[in-house]
């Protein structure tokens, strides 16, 4: 698996990397993760494998988003959707800039829960999104019931904007501006070693 982005995070002493999802290689793993008790209430994808395959096939064909596996030291343990706000259902919830990006995530492997990995992973993905020079804002809209995830987004540098109604949930619209993010985490990424 060739990563699209990778760096060594000195805070967790692990390489964090993101690789593009491939249908045949990853459908089984992603389906398993979406059935987990800590995931299914927020993702609503507790569906049979055949239906999940069709769902994932459609998502991979959607050109406004890119799907990634998140790896720590080469082990797949999280799932990410990085999307352009324009063309997404959330675009009607605020006045987006054409190059605003958004992210969705889940930690699929339960062995990685509760160990402080969510923030370094999220921070790495946001940094990855800001490598696109035209992007000045990354948004998120976690389920308003998911207090833990909202807290992680805030620790990363996202600010709560407002609750929004989406087809599958009530989300908390959150913004992360490039300038504040880079100021907050400058030392982390300056010190990062390429891997």
From TrEMBL:
Q: In which pathway does it act?
A: Siderophore biosynthesis
- Name the UniProt key words of this record, in alphabetical order: Antibiotic resistance
A GO BP term, please?
siderophore biosynthetic process
Q: Which InterPro entries match?
A: Acyl_CoA_acyltransferase, Acyltransferase_MbtK/IucB-like, GNAT_dom
Q: Which Gene3D superfamilies match?
A: 3.40.630.30
Query: Annotated Gene Ontology MF terms?
Result: N-acyltransferase activity
Indicate the segments forming the N-acetyltransferase domain, all copies.
16-179
**Keyword flag Plastid:** no
The UniProt entry, under SMART domains, shows: AlcB
| Entries under PROSITE patterns matching the protein | GNAT
Q: What is this protein called?
A: Lysine N-acyltransferase MbtK
Give the originating organism.
Cytobacillus firmus DS1
């Amino acid at each position: 698996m060739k990563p699209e982005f990778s760096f060594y995070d000195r805070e967790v002493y692990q390489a964090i990397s993101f690789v593009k999802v491939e249908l045949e290689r990853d459908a089984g793993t992603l389906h398993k993760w979406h059935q987990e008790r800590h995931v299914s209430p927020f993702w609503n994808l507790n569906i049979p494998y055949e239906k999940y395959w069709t769902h994932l096939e459609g998502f991979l064909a959607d050109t406004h988003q890119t799907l990634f596996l998140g790896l720590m030291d080469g082990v797949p343990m999280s799932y990410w959707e990085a999307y352009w706000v324009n063309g997404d259902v959330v675009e009607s919830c605020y006045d987006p800039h054409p190059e605003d990006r958004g992210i969705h995530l889940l930690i699929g492997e339960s062995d990685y829960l509760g160990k402080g990995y969510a923030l370094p992973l999220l921070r790495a993905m946001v940094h990855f999104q800001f490598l696109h020079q035209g992007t000045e804002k990354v948004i998120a809209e976690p389920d308003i019931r998911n207090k833990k995830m909202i807290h992680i987004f805030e620790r990363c540098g996202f600010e709560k904007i407002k609750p929004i109604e989406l087809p599958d949930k009530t989300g908390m619209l959150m913004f992360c501006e490039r300038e504040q993010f880079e100021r907050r985490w400058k030392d982390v990424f300056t010190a990062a070693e390429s891997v």
